[in-house]
Each structure stands twice: as C-alpha cells, then as structure tokens.
Amino acid sequence: MEWTSSRRNRSFGIAAAVAVALLTGPACATVQKPAHLKTLAPADLSKPADWEYKIQIGDQLDVKFYFNNDLNEHVVVRPDGRISLQLVPEVMAAGLTARELTDKLKQDYSRELSNPELTVIVRTFSAQRIFVGGEVAKGGEKPLVGSVTALQAVAMAEGFKDSARLTEVVVIRRNIDRTPLAIPINLKAAISGVDPSQDISLLPYDVVWVPKSTLANINKYVNLIIWNNVPISFGFRLVPQDF
Q1: Which of 163, 168, 142, 172 is nearest to 154 (CA)?
Q2: Alpha helices in 110-235 (DSSP H)
Q3: For residues 39 and 42, what is the distance between their CA atoms, to the nearest angstrom?
Q4: Listing from the earlier edge strand, what are the strands of the sheet with 140-143?
Q5: Which of 77, 132, 173, 219 makes the best surface tag, with the fewest CB within 10 Å?
Q6: What pLDDT digit, counting tens, does each position of 203-220 carry?
C-alpha cells in the first residue's frame, strides 16, 4: 500500500523535520536549576578527617551537669532545630556537633553559674531518611542508616531506568536556615571510576533527583509527533515534498 496523500506526506514531513531538529539540536542540553538554588560542587563536600556527627531535628539529647544535677535535662530537638533548657534562652542545636553545643551551653550558663561544667550526649537519633526520585525504578522515601552515598541511594531505589541521564543527577539539600542547595553530580563518572568523588555522601532529608535523558525526551516526541501521524499500515512509500 502506498501512502501518497499530499496531506499525509506533508504532515509526516513536518513531523520528520521536527525530529531531525531534535536529533541534531543540543543533545547535551543541561538540566536547568531554579534560580533560587545555590550550587555547590561535589569537591566542596569531602569530609575532613575529624568529621563529627551534627545534631538533627528529632534527636534526643542528655545535658549533664557535673556539679548541678538539678539542671540535668533530657530534651528532644524541636522541628525548628532548637532546644529549651532551664535558666538560659532557647538554643539552636540542629547543625551543631555535641562538642559545639557543649561549648555553646557552657558560655550561656556562665551568666548564671560560676564555671559551669557540663556535657551533651546524643542518646537517640531521629529516624533519618532520604528521598530518591526521577528516572529510577522505585523512587520515594528511603531509610538513612549510617553512611549512604548517592549511588547507594539509587541502588535502594532498585537502580536507574534506561531513560536516566547519569551525567546530570542533582542532590537537593536544605541548609539549617531551610534554604535549598543544589549539588550537581556525574554518577556516570563515578561508576566508570573516572571521578569517584562524584558519588557524594548524603545527609538526612537529601533529595536525589535523576533527570530524564535527552534520548528519552526525543523518543517521547517521536512517539507523540511522528508516529501519531503515520497510518497503521507501514507498507508505504515516502514521496519527497517541499515544505
């Protein structure tokens, strides 16, 4: 069967031109991040040798005084990151290490006590979690137990889809002041061993977003634009058209 209808030929020709433009266009188009997101390179995230755990929202803390037992407290870090204690104003605890919070409380209590001696102990950790989305097999909320990298998070999501763009994965992180931070990473380079530092360690509530590949986007347009214009029977002969 020959497909000789002028209308159909012209429709197919236009669709083919669109496909050619897609295929010959910027195949390496980059993911555009929102203007309000600050960007941080993976190289800036390497953990120093003396890295310490930072207190998170929901952690349970013991504040122990050596010589003033009546001031001992067992507190939970509130959703705003603060804790409430006796004699001193509310204190921002989230984002500090136990040692840093200890030093902060010693300074605050020195206004009420002479040479206060105390320590902060993290008793229980909040239910840490991360989120994986985009072109992965099974995205969603994932538990964060111990140290988890971006690739391990994707493995927890049962791996990449064929349509995933591994070179422009984005980790979205929120600072203590709740402002978002975008960290672009190249997991293809991490997998190949070219740049293992791209496989960064995640923090609680990080979002790992895997974008769709350019080829996948092209396939989508091919399906929507071209094949919707082709008749069910494929036994046709294309007639060149000027358009």
Answers
A1: 142
A2: 150-156, 187-192, 214-221
A3: 10
A4: 38-39, 180-185, 169-174, 207-210, 129-134, 140-143
A5: 219
A6: 888 999 999 987 666 566
